[in-house]
Amino acid sequence: MLLSHEKEQRLLKETRKRLDELEKLPSLHKDASISQMLQSRGISRRDFMKWATAMTATLALPASFVPLTAKAAEIADRLPVVWLHMAECTGCSESLLRSDGPSIDSLIFDYISLEYHETIMAASGWQAEENLESAIKKHHGQYILMVEGGIPSGSTEHCLTIGALGHTGAENARKAAEGAKAIFAIGACSSFGGIQAANPNPTAAQPLSKIITKSVINVPGCPPSEKNIVGNVLHFLLFDALPPVDAFNRPIWAYGHRIHDLCERRGRFDAGEFVQRFGDEGAEEGYCLYKVGCKGPYTFNNCSKLRFNSHTSWPIAAGHGCIGCSEPQFWDKMGPFEEPMANHLFQTAFGGEGADKTSDKIGIAILSAAAIGIAAHAALSAIFKDKGE
Fold it and tell me: pTM of the predicted model, to two decimals?
């Protein structure tokens, strides 16, 4: 974030004031503070500040915000969170709930006031339903709502029925959204419908934004990085406001760049060095995966920077192309995942045409006109490579 000195100082002052006010609120955890919890897990203050520095950079904030990011994390237990599960695989929750070497991100999220989360709560049956009702009532207007999973709608809304009272997922989502201060759709399913909404979509599954009337911040991915989830909580703590978003309501700080722009194999792409088939010599040499279906040129996310598995790797590093899981309707538009995008047919007002041809006609409405340049660049690079130029 590029700010003038005056704007940066003013924002720092406003943020300090907000955090000081939050700090005065009672912790929703009575056993120990987040700082004490991290210390008990063997995380030193030095390691914590290194994490705060990395998170500040991830949020695209100036370095002067590092102490404030650290403070926001330390008082995150003042912020109640209600997490609802809809039609999903719980993979987004698993992105946070790591049992093997949990990161600072997941530890902080584990320790915030998670008022309701079906996967990890001890209560079940009527007690669980009572917990949800109680959390919504007790923290009305103050809690963050996070929703995971697509939501059946219309005449098939009953396909997702929750609890003894027979409430549908859509009903629970609408009720929880009414009293929420901020709402986040976590994962591809909640953000854009996911596989539940893929053709033929028998349950008429919809993203959260189509079920409720309030503004929703989408945090897509299958699953999204834990930092993309925790980062939004920290942003809200810091500024008491939702982050700036792109055309699909995704936070720009997390989804502002294409996978292709920051890919470690980008140099191979520019040099015309492509894997032709999985397991060939190019695959062994780490060549670009575009010709075996990588959707990196069409996908906006920060996977290459944050990575997965304790930030050690990600699909492209492991040898498989990006499947475009943070894009709308990726199950229908991006598959088959092992074929180049330029060969795909899209059913549009222009009929069934290849991705590049379609984008040439209607531009960003389908894939962005950049797809043309990407395909042309890839083809020309390969030609020059074959000629030895």
Answer: 0.84
